[in-house]
Structure formats: C-alpha cells, structure tokens
Amino acid sequence: MPKRFDQWLVLIEEFKADTDVMNIVYLADNLDAMRVLAVWSYQVLDVSVPKSDPPKEKNRQWEWLWESVQYDASSLARAAGVHPSLTRSIMESLIGNRLIFPDGTISSFADDVLQGFAGKQKNKAKSKG
To answer: Could you say which of 20, 59, 66, 117 has the lowest number of CB atoms within 10 Å?
Structure first.
C-alpha cells in the first residue's frame, strides 16, 4: 500500500478522534441534512492515492483528504430524496462541520443524532398506527 494512502488513513482516524460535538448543531431541525447523512455510508466512493504529501496545517489536511475522494452526487441526491442542488450545499456543510468522513463514515456524534432521529420517527409511526 502506498505511503500516501497510509497517511490518508491515519489522518482520517485523527480527525475522527478530534470531532467537536458542537458541530452537530447544523443538524438541528434540518431534515434534508439528516436524509443525506443517513445515506452517506451507503454511497460508492472512488478514492485515489493522494498526489502530494499531506500539508502541515489542520484545515488544509482536511481539504487534502477530500481531494482524493469522488462520489456520485446525483446518486446521493436520489438516495436521500433531496434536490441535487440542495444536496451539494448540504454536503459542503456536512464536510465543513466534519460530520462525515472521506472514507464513507460519519462522526459518532452525528450517528447518535441520526439514531435519535430514527427512534423519534419510529415512535411517531407507532403512535399513528
């Protein structure tokens, strides 16, 4: 496995360990963001070996990680049931808030919010049924 890809994997794990719980505020009352978040882990990603070494600065490292990742935005929008132009904006926010990772995973805090949301939806469905 190439050295840069190893660095890519290590940096992702470092970002996962450094997630800020306050970033989940973006998800509050944002049903479309929740939908995109819910399907992110099921998307097929095309990850290439980075062409350069990772930068030293943390924010640039985050950008460097994402430069190696391609995903089908149209497929993501369809799976989430969200308009494609809105999906792009949501993805920028999910990435910027570090709620999703370039390896196809989501932050543990975002996962907690998603699980809580799913539980509420399930309870609503039961009470209506």
So the answer is: 59
